[in-house]
Amino acid sequence: MSVPRRLAPARACRQEGFTLAEMLVALTGAGLLIGLLIGLLGSQSAFHLRNEDTIQASQIARALSDGLGPEIRAAGPGDLLLATPDTVSIRVDVLRAVVCGTASGGSVDLFAYDSIAANLQSGWRGTALSGPYSAAWVYTDGLTPVSGVSAAAEAACRAAGADPANRMPTRWFRRASGWSGGLAPMPEPGSLARIYGRLTYAIHRSASGSATVSIRRNGQEFVSPLEPGAAFEYRLSSGAIQARVSTGALSRVREVRLTGTAIGRNGRAGGRRVVYAMSLRN
User: Fold this and answer.
1) Residue 20 — very low, low, confident or very high, per pLDDT cuts 50/70/90?
2) Is 37 within the bounds of a domain?
3) Which residues contact 234 (CB under 8 A, 6 or more apart)?
4) Residue span of the structural domain in which 163 resides
5) How many domains is the chain partitioned into structurally?
6) SS3 14
7) Going by C-beta distance under 8 Å and a sequence separation of 6 or more, which residues neighbour residue 229?
C-alpha cells in the first residue's frame, strides 16, 4: 500500500522592484556620490580660479616692469613735468638730432640720428637744445619747428662731417624752419636737439567699476587691476622720499617709485605686492 507524499508548501512569489528601504538606501548613496562630485568640481574650479589670478597678477607685475620701467628710466631729472601720488609726467623724445648748421630765414639743418616711436597720443610737443660745449638742456615746451627732408640739409651735414661712411639715407637729413621763434640765439653747429612729447602715467579707478584701480598711459588703460592704495613716490637727491614734489624741486628727483598690489580679476588669490624703484638717467 503506497503512502501518499506530503507536498512542500508553495513559496510566495516576490514581485519585481525594490522595497522602500532599498530605495531610500540607493537614493542616499546617490546623493552622497553627487555631493562628492559637486564638491570635487567646486574645489577644482576654485583651484583654477586661484591659479588664474596668480598668473594674471604676475603678468601685471611683468607689464609694469617691462613697460613703465624703461620709459621712466629713460627720463632725466630735467624731463619731469609732474610728480604727485597718482600721476607722473615726463618728457619723452620722439626725435634726436645734431645741428649741422644754420640757413637763411631762421632755418636749421639737422642730422636726425634717432627717431623713436613712443606712441604718444597727445599732440603736445616741445624742443630741447644743448650746446656743443654744454651738458645742460634748455627746454621750450610748445615749440615744434617744422622740419622736412632736404637735399640741401644733407649736403650741409655731410660737408660738416656727418655720416662719413655715407650709410644713412636722405630721409635722416632735415631742414627745420621756425626755430628762431622760440629758442634764441640760434643753435650752434654741433649742438644736440631733441623733439619731445609728454608721457603721463596716472592711477585711476578701473574702467570695470570694481573696487580696484588701474594705471593709464596717456589716458589709455595700461594695466589693471590693482588694489586701491597704489601710489607713486619720489626719492630726492637728499635721499628723502616724498609723495609729492613741487615744480621748483622736480630737478632734484633721482628716483620714481611705484608701490601697489597686483591682483587677479576673480579675486580668489592673494595679490602680488609690487615695489618698483626706477632711477632716472643722469
Assistant:
1) low
2) no
3) 83, 241, 242, 243, 244, 245, 253, 255, 256, 257
4) 90-197
5) 2
6) coil
7) 260, 261
